[in-house]
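User: ok so my PI wants both of these folded by tonight, can you help

Assistant: No problem, let's get them done. Here's the first:
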Amino acid sequence: VNRFLCEKRLESKYATAIMVRLKADGQVEMVNCGHVLPLLISGESSQWLKETNMPVGLLPGAKYEAARFQMKPGERLLLYTDGITEAMNATEEFFDDERLRQAALTNAPLDTIFRSLAEFCAGTPAADDCTVLEMTYAGGKAGDDTDPTLQKITR
């Protein structure tokens, strides 16, 4: 992807991207290319996964490194676009990371995120897409062909 974009010479155009592979045994491999930080949720606690690389399309020879970690059954990985955290209300205040985190810690995170976002923006139109993907690790073992639970809502 990086080489393709660089070869197109799109004059200072680049893209952020995030690629995640969640295996049946809970092993995660993630390559974050300048995208907003994913949120790992475990029960009532959470942490931002800060491993990142540069966006794609900036430097032809850029090297990208994968972060690897283990998810436990019941843990959730939240991926989202910056349209969520950068959504503004009428006073031009951002929805921000903390509001997203609080909504994500609930029992119905996707519904709560979008309801909280709508209440916060109170009719102010979105300036960007608002996409959220939640990956929940249900448990499994190596070689198991069970897929993790995926939910995606775009509004």
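One down. Here's the second:
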Amino acid sequence: HIVINEHVREISQFAFLYSNIISAVFKHNYSSLTLGKSTFRSCSNLIYLDMSYVLIDEIPKRCFENCSSLRTALIPSVLYIREQAFNECNNLKTIDIRSSIIIESRAFYNCNINSLIFTNNLESIGDKAFAFNDLDYIEFRNNINSNINFGTNVF
């Protein structure tokens, strides 16, 4: 298990690549954090990610790609989820991405997500962003009057 406190403002690319951590909890008291590309890539034992109290602009490209045991990812304040950020997280069922504005291509490709609720000002969902999931329910709460740009084969 790893707990990262508010004194950590940046984590460089590949920092935890192939690490054996089981959970990552960020105790940031609503302070900002920057992650590098592929920071937690291929952490096959990672089950739980909690970034509920972090102000984070983006989850970079391939940041959590191939975290095959990841079941829960709580990142409610993230604005941008870059290409393949959670690609191939085959056991990912629960996500909180309520503040996301842009979700790039294959961001959650081949996961196991069964429901999505978008609650803020979603602008764009890229190609195959949620392809090959077990989606039973999708809700766009505050986006009724928005012009959301959908890529191809999004769901």
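The chain has a mean pLDDT of 94. The first strand starts at residue 2 and ends at 5. Good luck tonight!
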